[in-house]
Structure formats: C-alpha cells, structure tokens
C-alpha cells in the first residue's frame, strides 16, 4: 500500500527510513533475540539505547554539561504542572499567552500560585507574537514561560522575550529539533516528542542543573519531582522504552541529514514553497502575520467554510491527509515537520493550484 502525505499536527509523520529500520529490528534487536518492546529497561542492551539517545541529542543541540536531559512521561500537558511544582519557590510566575497550549500551562500554574499573564495575543485569535522587549515582569517572579511554536495558530517566536534576568521556560513541542537552538538561553526547554521526534508518550526536558532540587512545592508527587528523574537518569521507574528507542533513531537520522542547520535549511525551503503560494493565491490565505510565521505549522483558509470542507475532502482522496485546521481557527493547517519531504509540500501546492482553478470563477 502506498503511503500518504501526512500533514498531521501530531502524532505526525516520521522518517520512513526510521520506520523501516525499526521494522527490520522488530523481532530481533541486534542479535538479542528480542524486540526492544520486550526487553528489561535495566538490561545492558537497553542501557546502551537510552545512553546513546541522550548522547546524540546532546550532540545535536550542543547541550552544555550543566544541563540534564530527562526522558519523561505524561505528555507536555503534565509538564504544565511540573513547571510550577518544581520552580515556583516564590509562588509567582509570568506567562506569555500566545495560544491554547500557553493558556493551558498558565491555567495549570494558577493552581499552584500566582501566574501572571504579562502579554497575550488572544485579541487577534493568536495570529501574532506580542512584543516581548519590555514586559512588566514582577521582580520576584520565579520564571517566565513561553510556548515557542504555537502548533494550532502557526506562530513562532523569532526572538526570545527579554526576561529581565528571570529564568526562561519554553515549550518547544512543535519546533523541537527543527532548527539550531541555544540551550544556554533557557532554564528549562521541554516538549512532547510526537511531532518532530518520535511516537507519543515521551516528553524530553532539558533542565539547567541548579534548577533541579529537593525544594519543590509541598505535595509534589515523587514521580513529578525532576530530582527523582535526574538522580535515576530517567530510569526511576519503567520508562516508555520503545518510544525512546525510536527517538534515538530519529536523532541519528537528523545527524545523517546534516544536523540542525541542515534541518533548518530543509524546513525553510518547504515553508517558503507553501507561504509563497499562499501569498499569491486568489483563493487561499494564510492566517498569521508574516513576520511571526512558523516553519512547522501553516494554517490557511479560503474564507468559505463549505469550500474549506470540500478542499479537505478532495485533498484526503488525493492522498494529502490530516489537513483540517483546529476548530478555533477553522480552515486548514498543514504541519510540515522535519520528516515531511520537500516533494510532499510541492505536490500539495500543485494540488492547491488545481483546486483553486476549479473553484474560482
Ligand atoms: C505546543 C504544544 N504544547 C503542548 C501540547 C500538549 O501535548 P500533550 O498532548 O503531549 O500533552 C501540544 C499538543 O499538541 C502542543 O502542540
């Protein structure tokens, strides 16, 4: 059966090469006579898998030694709670609300302390990134929180906020490893892997060592205390072993493709093809201000709901799947993560051109 072009926002397309390799190793991983799904997480062979995955990620992002890498569970949504539990010493934090995921993190933090929205783009359906050059951040705020790439709305910070010396915490779920990133600018960087890195079920967190302490909010469950996980090298309990193994394969694939600078180039090329077409199209329009456009998630509309539905239906039949936009934006959204080949975007644009011809007078 032919594979489709999958524009899902997540879980999302993975490199075909990785899937084939995993298939070949399914019954017998490197002569162990077992699938990675079946082996003990305490075995030597699995220890090599998780250690190599971490080493490759450190290499890709050039992660300094004073940052820990944790492979966690619970999705990015559970991490929304882990951030205040582990960091809210003064019970105060500043949140920048650039979409639903940032808002959910902010609402979660409110359970634990005084979460303050210091900027928001909710007034225009989150179609832009607010000016973050001079925010009113309380002196005693424990951290500043952002969602760096807004999966639903298709915006991305091109410049990080001026946190005025406060720790920056960033959710990079939908832009993880899509381009180089200077880890030293952050206290905590984290993301669910189900978009650019692997199968749902793993959150990768990169945390500056001094932020990992026993001084957490009272009542923090053992499992959600970063120190528990850091002290055990992410093996405090049984981790999502197979999923981490796939993440490791994706890290190797990115390295083979030339690393994060090459990924950025590849992603810019793809995004340009789609945005250039949206800018000249008489039928389709992008929904985001140009300067804040994401390289990963591209929402667009025709302005006519029935026509949007027709487009999604016809696209699906033609092998371009998961293009329906989020209900809060409507229309369509093409997520073009690392593993989406250029050819997928070229063919989508060809299809859009044909649809435009057939549906404009
Ligand atoms: C930017 C961002 N943050 C958080 C989440 C929530 O992730 P999870 O479903 O792993 O809790 C998503 C999910 O799509 C997301 O795109």
Automatic annotation (TrEMBL):
EC number in record: 2.6.1.52
Entry keywords, A to Z: Amino-acid biosynthesis, Aminotransferase, Cytoplasm, Pyridoxal phosphate, Serine biosynthesis, Transferase
Any GO MF annotation of the entry: O-phospho-L-serine:2-oxoglutarate aminotransferase activity
UniProt pathway: Amino-acid biosynthesis; L-serine biosynthesis; L-serine from 3-phospho-D-glycerate: step 2/3
Top-tier EC class: transferase
Major site of localization recorded for this protein: cytoplasm
UniProt binding sites for L-glutamate: 42
Domain Aminotransferase class V stretches: 4-348
Catalytic activity: 4-(phosphooxy)-L-threonine + 2-oxoglutarate = (R)-3-hydroxy-2-oxo-4-phosphooxybutanoate + L-glutamate; O-phospho-L-serine + 2-oxoglutarate = 3-phosphooxypyruvate + L-glutamate
Cofactors that this protein relies on: pyridoxal 5'-phosphate
Positions of modified residues (N6-(pyridoxal phosphate)lysine): 195
UniProt remark on cofactor binding: Binds 1 pyridoxal phosphate per subunit.
Keyword NADP among record annotations: no
Family under the similarity heading: Belongs to the class-V pyridoxal-phosphate-dependent aminotransferase family. SerC subfamily.
PANTHER family per record: PHOSPHOSERINE AMINOTRANSFERASE
Subunit structure: Homodimer.
Described function: Catalyzes the reversible conversion of 3-phosphohydroxypyruvate to phosphoserine and of 3-hydroxy-2-oxo-4-phosphonooxybutanoate to phosphohydroxythreonine.
Protein name, per record: Phosphoserine aminotransferase
Gene that this sequence comes from: serC
């Amino acid at each position: 059966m032919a594979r489709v072009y999958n524009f899902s926002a997540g879980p999302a397309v993975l490199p075909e090469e990785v899937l084939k390799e995993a298939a070949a190793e399914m019954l017998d991983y490197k002569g162990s006579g077992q699938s990675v799904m079946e082996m003990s997480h305490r075995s030597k062979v699995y220890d090599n898998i998780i250690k190599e995955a971490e080493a490759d990620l450190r290499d890709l992002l050039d992660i300094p030694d004073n940052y820990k890498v944790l492979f966690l569970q619970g999705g990015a949504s559970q991490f929304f709670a882990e951030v205040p539990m582990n960091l809210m010493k003064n019970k105060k934090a500043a949140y920048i609300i650039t979409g639903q995921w940032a808002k959910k993190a902010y609402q979660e933090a409110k359970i634990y302390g005084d979460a303050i929205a210091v900027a928001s783009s909710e007034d225009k359906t989150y179609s832009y990134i607010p000016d973050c050059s001079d925010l009113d951040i309380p002196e005693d705020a424990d951290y500043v929180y952002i969602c760096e790439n807004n999966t639903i709305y298709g915006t991305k910070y091109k410049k990080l906020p001026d946190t005025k010396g406060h720790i920056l915490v960033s959710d990079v779920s939908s832009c993880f490893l899509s381009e180089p990133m200077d880890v030293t600018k952050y206290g905590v960087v984290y993301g669910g892997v189900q978009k650019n890195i692997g199968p749902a079920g793993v959150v990768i967190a990169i945390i500056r060592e001094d932020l990992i302490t026993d001084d957490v909010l009272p009542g923090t469950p053992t499992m959600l205390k970063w120190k528990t996980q850091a002290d055990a090298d992410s093996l405090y309990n049984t981790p999502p072993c197979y999923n981490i193994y796939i993440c490791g394969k994706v890290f190797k694939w990115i390295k083979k493709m030339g690393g994060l600078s090459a990924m950025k180039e590849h992603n810019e090329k793809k995004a340009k093809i789609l945005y250039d077409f949206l800018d000249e199209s008489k039928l389709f329009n992008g929904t985001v201000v140009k300067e804040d456009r994401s390289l990963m998630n591209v929402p667009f509309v025709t302005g006519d709901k029935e026509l949007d539905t027709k487009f999604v239906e016809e696209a699906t039949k033609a092998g371009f799947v998961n293009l329906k936009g989020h209900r809060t934006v409507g229309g369509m959204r093409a997520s073009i993560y690392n593993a989406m080949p250029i050819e997928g975007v070229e063919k989508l644009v060809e299809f859009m051109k044909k649809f435009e011809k057939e549906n404009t007078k």
